Structures are given as structure tokens and as C-alpha cells.
TrEMBL record:
<feature type="region of interest" description="Disordered">
    <location>
        <begin position="638"/>
        <end position="744"/>
    </location>
</feature>
<keyword id="KW-0732">Signal</keyword>
<feature type="compositionally biased region" description="Basic residues">
    <location>
        <begin position="671"/>
        <end position="683"/>
    </location>
</feature>
<feature type="domain" description="Glucose/Sorbosone dehydrogenase">
    <location>
        <begin position="210"/>
        <end position="535"/>
    </location>
</feature>
<feature type="domain" description="Folate receptor-like">
    <location>
        <begin position="51"/>
        <end position="177"/>
    </location>
</feature>
<protein>
    <submittedName>
        <fullName>HHIP-like protein 2 isoform X1</fullName>
    </submittedName>
</protein>
<dbReference type="InterPro" id="IPR011042">
    <property type="entry name" value="6-blade_b-propeller_TolB-like"/>
</dbReference>
<keyword id="KW-1015">Disulfide bond</keyword>
<dbReference type="Pfam" id="PF07995">
    <property type="entry name" value="GSDH"/>
</dbReference>
<feature type="compositionally biased region" description="Polar residues">
    <location>
        <begin position="642"/>
        <end position="657"/>
    </location>
</feature>
<feature type="compositionally biased region" description="Basic residues">
    <location>
        <begin position="691"/>
        <end position="714"/>
    </location>
</feature>
<keyword id="KW-0325">Glycoprotein</keyword>
<keyword id="KW-0964">Secreted</keyword>
<dbReference type="InterPro" id="IPR011041">
    <property type="entry name" value="Quinoprot_gluc/sorb_DH_b-prop"/>
</dbReference>
<feature type="signal peptide">
    <location>
        <begin position="1"/>
        <end position="35"/>
    </location>
</feature>
<comment type="similarity">
    <text>Belongs to the HHIP family.</text>
</comment>
<dbReference type="Pfam" id="PF03024">
    <property type="entry name" value="Folate_rec"/>
</dbReference>
Amino acid sequence: MLRTSIPRAPSLPTSSGIFHLCLTFLLGQVGLLQGHPQCLDYGPPFQPLLHLEFCSDYESFGCCDQHKDHRLAARYRVIMDYLDLKGHELCGGYIKDILCQECSPYAAHLYDAENPQTPLRNLPGLCSDYCSAFHSNCHSAISLLTNDRRLRETREKDSAHFCHLLNLPDKDYCFPNVLRNDHLNRNLGVVAEDGRGCLQLCLTEVANGLRNPVSMVHAGDGTRRFFVAEQVGVVWVYLPDGSRLEQPFLDLKNIVLTTPWVGDERGFLGLAFHPRFRRNRRFYIYYSCLGKKKVEKIRISEMKVSRADPNKADPKSERVILEIEEPASNHNGGQLLFGVDGYLYIFTGDGGQAGDPFGKFGNAQNKSSLLGKVLRIDVNGAGSDGRRYRVPRDNPFVAEPGAHPAVYAYGIRNMWRCAVDRGDPITRWGRGRMFCGDVGQNRFEEVDLIVKGGNYGWRAKEGFECYDRKLCHNASLDDILPIYAYGHAVGKSVTGGYVYRGCESPNLNGLYIFGDFMSGRLMALQEDRKTKKWKKRDICLGSTESCAFPGLISTYSKFIISFAEDEAGELYFLATSYPSAYLPHGSIYKFVDPSRRAPPGKCKYKAVPVKTRSKRVRFRPLAKTVLDLLKEQSEKAARKLSNATSASRPVGTSSLKGPSRKPASPTSSRKTFRGPGTKKRARVWSPGSQGKRKMRRKSHSGRVRQSRTGRSLRRPFLSGSLAGGRARGESPHPMGAPAIELGL
């Protein structure tokens, strides 16, 4: 926002002046005024789906789709109708350039729109040489581009005053310099990296107050609901508007075995919906329980949703499919998922303790044991041998004597969180691949791709290295090596993630994103399809510059419990600040790439309506957004400066009283040019349906009305059109006004 003003007599700073001074200084220090790609609706730029005919310089990457491009072209034609032939020749290019800055990937910086709580400029920031040439040749056209009184008054004056009003503090970002800056445009549109090569991503908070959220899944029924399971045995329903139903979907607290101990691995651990859930209402659960004589078990059961309420499980419908005795309280596995083949995959731990001490080779290498395995079963019918499931005929060890026929892969220590790759949205590359994080013993954590009949090495190997040297040197072990492993200097408990295949952040497509429970680190693996190797990339949060968008945060709870994807393929993770199953310190976060978003309208989905009987609990975010933190810091700096000013005031000098006069500036005018057919106001970009932020609006009484969230964001009046509507204002001339003689 411009902060130039008419010269006035020196005076002591008012509190308002101190605040704005500190805000300007602070934002400059933290990098917010150091422009980053951002559009006038406060969202990241995008690649338009269709060709831009008017602002074609930005058709590969910018802030305009074809609809907005057409609106700018229409406004251009209206303006040019007022110019004579000479005006067309001299000013057509300038006017087009200025209008098309709304399409620039740096539009927010050019219009001072990076902070939604400040008004926009009426015209973009122009570099001095370009501005002087424009004023010299086309000063009479200024009134056609803006209704701002101070800018229009400079029409007949020298260009210095006009260009001073349009000045930007950073000369690299004014137009047209911003187009020529190789540093700014070299990696435009790709995921931002810091100096260490760390990927700069941001988050939105979508849920909080959860007790160790271990799983978040969707039902695949088109309702866009997601179901969040707590370790204590309670499953909650979240609706597409971000609200949670007051009554739980499922409550098994009285059956599930867990304790308040920090780090207790027992509890409700897995949830999966049948691929044909819409027809059969069936879902599957995995939890710890006590059997006869208080023997600890893991239980995999089938349940059904109530016919009376689609948001409630039928508590009487549980049908136990499989129970496995657990010799120890740790290494319980817990993942359930359906593969693209329609079979249910079950991931069990090795039975616990340390080093898999059970039997000669351990449970994981013993194919007759169900522990330390990936199991594959058909839940669509009962087996002939009394089992409540069928064994697929092509399971790898069906014909091997002594091997359990349900075993699909073995040699696993404790796989914690696995996922099936949806495949590339266009080519379907990667579809059906199964990724898992396998928690290590003393030295290494690993990420594996599950293959039929694979031996993943435990307890012979840990990561790429030997653990049990005698077993490790056994030539008969044809181990499947990890696609990636890391040492305990990085983290001590891997949490498997997902390959991103969503729509909203196209740059992330194909990245396998995962984390570490103990260290709280977020990481990504990038595949080289030629070498079939994976490169590890760190993910960093916390850049004030990168995450300075409405609704985005750059902090999260340390202990990363799980990852999830919604029905549209957008990626989330579940974390807690204190890993006890009984304390409500868990939150859910959604990943957002601030460098590039999908084009407007591409990622809109219509949810299938679902009836709700339970009361809705509106989501109240706890995490402070980056913009909130910047505002707090600026207010704190303002108070310090105010106190320092008061302390330095001479004795007998009274403080200023009464309302302070805000210096006039070209940004203070609310009136802007209105093109034909412009009725709607601008809409503010929000990072997905869970990150909506309402703008405050003026009521009929003229007073500002707060949003329901308690925050007040100023809705800007834009110069020209925006995606989702244009600003209000009056046309600079009545229809039928004579063409302007430029008098050059």
C-alpha cells in the first residue's frame, strides 16, 4: 500500500501513524514486502486451461483465466473508444500493459494486495522510466484508468508527482522490470526452495481437539465426508464445510485396549471402507483388545453403517474376521486398505519387544505366523475351511507347505501407515503401487514398495544394513530393499505417507510425502522413472514470505501420527503436541503449495448430499495464520515505538489527542473504474473447502460487520476485474462522451 502523503508540518507520531510505520517496517524485514507470486484474490498464480487472446504474455503462468482475459479486453475496448486515432497509436500499448498487470503472477505486489487487511492501489506500480513515458504521451488517458482524485489531478502536472504516487519501494518488482528480472522468473511456477533445497510448503488447519488421531479416511461415496479415528476407539464424521458431527460415527472405547501412557502403541489403529460401500454399507476396523484370560489380541472386524442414519455405524453389526494374539504390547501394525484388485490388505507388526526374538528366525521370517506380514484376503465371501474370508487363489504362498495362505509379503518389523497410489491423473502411471513406512529398531527407518511374495528382510536387515548378521548372510534370503532409508539422526520412527495425486497443487503430483513421528520432520521422495531411483527432498514450513496468504499457517504439532487423502486426492497429515491417547491435543493439517494452484474452476466438486441427524460443531481454528502473526508482531513493535516516543517527549509537552488524520493517498479512494456488466465483488481465494475465510462487509448502516470467525478482513475495491467479480465504481465518462484529443 502506498504511504506517500501531502507534505505537512512536522508533528509527533500519532498511534495510528506509529502502527502503520511499524507495520511497514516489520513486513519489510520479514519479507512480506519482498514480493512473491500472488494474485489479487490473495491466491497463488496458475497455468490457464485455455489460450489468453488479450493478455497473452501471461497465458503460460499468471493470474488470469480466459474469462477474466475477455473482461479485461472488453474494458480495453471501452477505454480505447474515447481516444482518437493518434491516441490509439501512442497509448494503446501502455493501456494494455497496465490493464494486463492484473494477470501478472506478481499482481498482488504490483497492487499492494499481499496483505488482505490493506486497500489496493488503483493502478499497478510502474517503473520510473516507463511511468514518465506513459505520462508524457498519455496523461489525458489517466482519468480513463482510475477515479482516484489525486492521480487524476496529476494529469496536467509534471510526471514526477504522478510517478511518485505509483512508486514501489523495491525497483525489481515494478512494471516492466518484473518481467526482465531473471531471478524472479527463472523458477516461476515450480515449488519454491530455500537455500538448502528444502521445499517450501504451507498448511491449513482443518481439525483440532482430537485424542491421538491415528487415521483419516473417506468412504469413496461422493459425499466428501472424512472419518477420523482416535486411538481410544472413537470415530468422528467431518463434513465438506469443515464442521464435525456432534455424535460420533463409532464408539468402541469400552472394547478397545489402550492406556494414557505416552507412546502406548495399542488402541484403535485402522479403518477402511469397502470399495462398494455405497451399495453394501460395509467398512472394516483394526484394534487392540483383550481376549479370554486377558490375552492381548489384534482384531479385524467388519461392520455396517446404520440404515437409519448414514453417519452412524450399527454397533450390533460387528462380525469378527480375524484375531491374532499379540505376545507383547508394542509393534501392533494397524493398517487396513483395499488394493485396486478389490482385496483387503492387512499390515501386522512382528509381535513386539526388540529384535523379533520369537522362534529361531523371528515371527517376521516365519511364513506360518501372521505377525510381521502383509496379509491379503477376499472379504466378499467365507472360505470353505471355516474362515470368515476367502484366500485369493493367486496369493504367493497358497501352495507352500507350512505357510499361511493369507500371507502376501513378509519380513516386516512394524509397518506404520501405508497407502495405494491413485496414479497420475492423466497417464495413470503408478496406479496401484503400495507404499509403506516400516519403523526400524536401533539405526534405520525405511520406506518400501510392497510387491507380491516379497521378503523385506527383517530381522536379517534393518534398512539397507544387516541387523542379525547370521541371517543377513544367508544366501537364500532374496530381500526386497527399501526405496529409501534414513538414520536416526534424521528421525526415529517413520510415518508412511501418500503419493500426491490431487488437483489443487499440481506441482506436487507424483511426490511421495511422508514424515517422522519422533523428530516431526516432513519429507518427500521424488521418483526418477529412468533410473527407478528415488531422491529425498526435505519439506520446510515457516517461511513468512512463502506462506503470507489468507488462511495459511507455517507451524504444526510435532508428533506426526498419520497421513491421509480426501476423496479428491488432496493430502493431509495428523499430528499431536502430546502423544497420549487420552489427551485432546491432536490436529489435522492440509498441505498447500504457495507457488502454484490449479486454474479457477478446475477443482470444484459437487458433494453428494447426506442427511445429518446430529448437531454440527463448527470448526474453530487454534493455529494462528502467518498474516495474524505478522499483525501481532507489527502491533507489538508499534507499542514499543509508542512507548519510546512518549519517553523521549520533552517535559511539559502534551500528547496529541483526538482522532488522527490519515494522510490522503491514491489507495485511500474506494472508487475505481467499472467496466460494462460488472456487478459482483471480488472473492478471496481460500486454500480448499476447509480453509474458507469470510470477508467483512459493510452493512446498510455503513458500519463494518465482523465475520463469524471474529476476524475482520477488508474486502478490497479493485481497479478493474478480478476472478469472481469486479470492483464497484463509476465509469469515468458517461456513455457517448466525445473522443479525447490528447493534444500532444
